[in-house]
Every structure is written in structure tokens, then in C-alpha cells.
Amino acid sequence: MTQPTAIHWFRQDLRVSDNPALSEAAQSGRVLPIYIFDDKYAGDHAMGAASRVWLHHSLISLNKTLGGHLAIFKGDPVAIIKQLLEEHDVGSVHWNRCYEPWRMKRDAKIKAMLQEMGVDVHSQNGSLLWEPWAIQKKDGTPYRVFTPFYRKGCLMAAAPRQPLDIPELSFEKIKKPQSVDALALLPERSWSNSMIGHWDIGEEAAQQRLHDFLQSGVEHYKEGRNFPAKQHVSRLSPHLHFGELSPNQAWYAARAAGDSDQIDCFCSELGWREFSYSLLYFNHELPKKNLQSKFDAFPWKKSKKHLQAWQQSQTGIPIVDAGMRELWQTGYMHNRVRMIVGSFLVKNLLLDWRAGEAWFWDCLVDADLASNSASWQWVAGCGADAAPYFRIFNPVTQGEKFDPQGEYTRQFVPELKGLPDKWLFKPWEAPEEVLAQAGIVLGETYPEPIVDIKASRQLALEAFASLKKT
DNA sequence: TGAAATGTTGGGGCG
DNA sequence: ACGCCCCAACATTTC
């Protein structure tokens, strides 16, 4: 008697190790592994250009791991899965849960459909250390402040699942396989080649990155992670987003690497990821709506010119332009610099955080609905447990403090290379002869600052004060 | 995971 | 030796 077929539907769990749903499918029968590209149902958060490139390569890698058995589709999952049920003797369908509102809605619908058809459906937790609904205050409401969420909620709850091994898999063959190319994820212009050159994509590369980080980077994580020129951040975010690595694998590997403040600090950053998911889970409007509704009356400016200058790294503020170019060139930006460019957009330019969120969404290889939305609300001061609005970063001071030798800034803004450290972060104040010697003509070889730091800070405080009165 | 304004302290130059 | 002033260094408050 032949085994029934168990479909494993890959989504944001593009790995075979520590994959609870895949392991379960493997025990239920011959596995038919599928991926469905269906993000046209994602509303205004269809996958961004950088993420699509990453996905393309990650799917190729996963398919290779699966011996070429990954069945790839594009379109409406309801119709696609129905079709598969007709063509194969399917006994069960398995997946790991997603938490984006549109995906939860989709999954609920498909689950109901399958149950009605008499097919077993099993969903698992494959991408969070703790389910959002498992971490709540004693009164049954969700946490709104990170520290108690993490300390009292997460750390006091049951320990996260220990990572699972790679299961033994026997595959069901698909009738007419489609290649990853059919998804047309790559852009027509070839910018993606140089971007992707900064990364190794796929499960094996993710494990290697984790290993390398724990070997060298984590040792000075707590302080080192603030310095963008240093290699003390994990750079695991895109791997985690696509599920090439599970947070459980990262968590337990870090725990096994030692017991120090440094490692606790790294684990608490995984905790911030959990916190973001909790905020999204309990506030489906997080990507669009201010968590603090008093910000609904905030007098955002609408300057297209300023937004473009920010996007195109032509603000005339060196550390800001450096960050925006890192984003454009590599699909990534160091966290410290994300805070600096975010503060600059929202406070010095007085532009709506949603404009920044949208740009990051398109450009980041680690674009993640929960983390991106929660972090922008944090920067803008309108989120839960957010940075107070009056906490305005001074991009000159931040540059001097966190890129003291200017390596990061000079790497991405080479036209300022010749400026001595003293003036690197404020070329507009440099004496003429210093500029001349560095071969810089402000307004020609590098822009004049598009706003005055001090004056714009003052305007931001006034705009914020106007909220309190109402 | 701020920055700037304001307040306080203490060492040193100087008459 | 003493008082006075300056100002750097640090602390506190305010946005």
C-alpha cells in the first residue's frame, strides 16, 4: 500500500532544519514540498524589490537542498491547493504559521476549506520563540512596554522549543514542475547583481553566518553593535525573515556559546523581534496607523524634494547619506544608522514615518512587516514604548560618536574622503581652504545640507508641542 | 537606543 | 596667602 501524500507548504520557513511543520509532514507520508508566490494579495505591502531578489536566490537554494523536488507556483493558493488535491492522493497539509494580517486571513480561509474537504491540516510555530498570544500581562492584555514584555513575559514563560533535526524525507513527484524563474522575481535592470554580491543566501549560508558571528562578533556585541564600521552585528535579519534560520536555532546557539552580558544583549534583540510581532498581532493596523492616536493630528510636511533627497542620498548630511547609500547598495543598513536616518526623516525633515517605512520596505532585504512597522513607529515616537518625540538625534554628533574614524562614512560617501575627521560630519562648517584641499565644492561635488540641523530641530519641537495643546 | 540649556564644582592664573 | 575670575568638567533639567 502506498503512503498518502503530505503537502508541506513553505512560506517564511525556507529551511529543512528545525522546521516543525516539515518534520511533521515527513512523518505523515511522502512529502510534496510547495511554494506559492501570492503576494498580490498583500495589499500595499507586496514584496519589495530587494526582498524579491533575496527570495529568488533563497528558493533556488532550498530547491537544491530538496533535490529539485520543490514545486513552485504563482497565484491564488486556494485554487492551487485545490488543484493539487485533485492530482495527488493528499492526506494532510502542513505549514508553519505566518503573522501578517493578510496571511493569517488567507490561512484561516484555506484551513476551513481543507477541513471541509476532509483533509487534515496542521499548522506549527516555526518562526517565533513564543506565540504572540502566549505572552500577555496577568490581566490578559498585551504588553505595551518592551522591558516587562521580555523580562516578565518571555523569560518567565516556558522555554522556547529546542531546534529540531533535519527529517528523513521521501518525496512525491509533481506533474509539471515550474522553475523559480517563472516567478519573475528579479528586476529587469541588473542592479541586483551587485547588491546580492554582499550576501550568501540560503540555509547553509545562514548557519555559517550564525556560526561566524558567535565565533567573533558577539564578543563585543553590546557596545560594538553601535559602530557601523565594525563587524559586531549579526547581520542575520534577512535569514531570519525568510526563515533560512529559525530564532530558536539562533537563541540556543547563542546560549551555548557562553553566558555573558554580550550574549544576553543579543538574545534581547531577538526579544525585540518577538515584541514587534506581538505589537502587529494585537494591532493589525500597525503598518499604517499611529499606535498613539494623538499623532494623527501631527502636521507632517509633504515635500517631495526632501523625500527624494533622502531616498537618493543627497541630503548633504554625510552620515545620513552614507546610511541611505548602504541601503541602496547592499539592501541593508546598520541598525545605529537606521535610527539616525529615521530620526532625520521624521524630525529634521518633518516627513511622515510611513514614507520612510515604504522606502525601507522596498529596499531592505530584511524587510519584515512587524519589525519594519514597529521600528518606524518607535523612531517617530508614535509607537508603543517608543522613543519620546523630543529625543532628536543630531546627525553630526552621532557621526562623530559612532563613526569616529569616519571609515563607514568615507566608504559610502567617497567624495568626502579627503576631509579630515574634524569636518567629515559637517562639511558646511569647514574652512574654505580645508574644503579646497579635499577637492570639495559644496553644491557641486557634494550637496549643501537641505536643512539646518539646529533650526529644523526647533521646528520639530514646535510641531510636537502643537499636538499637546489639542 | 539624545541633545541642548542650565547649574555646580573645583583647579589654576593672576593681581 | 587670599579673593576673584575663568572655564573645563561634570551633573541636572528641559525639550
Number of domains: 3
Q: Let me know the largest β-sheet.
A: 5 strands, parallel
Regions with pLDDT < 50 over 5+ consecutive residues?
A: none
The amount of helix comes to 40-55%
The count of strands amounts to 5
The CATH class name of the largest domain reads Mainly Alpha
Oligomer: single chain
The N- to C-terminal Cα distance equals 73 Å
CATH level-4 homologous superfamily of the largest domain: DNA Cyclobutane Dipyrimidine Photolyase, subunit A, domain 3
User: Rounded to an integer, what's the Rg over CA atoms?
Assistant: 24 Å
The CATH architecture of the largest domain is Orthogonal Bundle
Overall body shape: globular
CATH T-level topology of the largest domain: DNA Cyclobutane Dipyrimidine Photolyase, subunit A, domain 3
Order of helices and strands: EHEHEHEHEHHHHHHHHHHHHHHHHH
Strand order of the largest sheet: 3-2-1-4-5
Helix-strand makeup class: alpha/beta
Number of helix segments?
21
Determine the strand fraction and express it as a percent band.
5-15%
